Amino acid sequence: FETEVSQLRELGIPVLWHVNQNGKCSNVQIFLHVNNIFQFCCNIETVTSSSFIYVNESKTWSEAQSYCREHYTDLASVRNQAENDQIENMNQNRSVWIGLYRDSWKWSDGSPTSFTYWNNNEPNGDYACAVIHNGRWEDYDCDTTLYFVCEIGEL
Ligand SMILES: [Ca+2]
């Protein structure tokens, strides 16, 4: 499998490597070809079993991070399309904070950033925090108060 990935990369084909919550990819279970990007998922049960909680209280990104760390695990990390869809289905077309911040862009809980889902022309500001809006990511002023999504359970 690693050979296939390196062959694709040598051909200049972008490859997203979805890893499980431990940052390890042991057995490949799904192969997708979406938007001309080859996407590999592994340990899919682990990936999709991570759960999120939607918090409908307006807070700045830092306040939201503190809240999530105090009550749950951390602000949400989005590791793959399934998790992105899960959050999008919760947030009713609002912009909501996720755990992504820079510099450079990284997850609040230290997860790898192999999966990204920026909206067209984003990130486009000097902003250091990220929201999900209509299923896509956008950079956003960290001091804005927004609803947010926390991650539940172990990292
Ligand atoms: Ca932006």
Automatic annotation (TrEMBL):
Pfam families: Lectin_C. The keyword Disulfide bond applies. InterPro entries: C-type_lectin-like (IPR001304), C-type_lectin-like/link_sf (IPR016186), C-type_lectin_CS (IPR018378), CTDL_fold (IPR016187). The keyword Disulfide bond applies. SUPFAM superfamilies: C-type lectin-like (SSF56436). Residues 47-151 form the C-type lectin domain. It comes from the Eukaryota. Keywords: Disulfide bond. This is C-type lectin domain-containing protein. It comes from Dicentrarchus labrax.
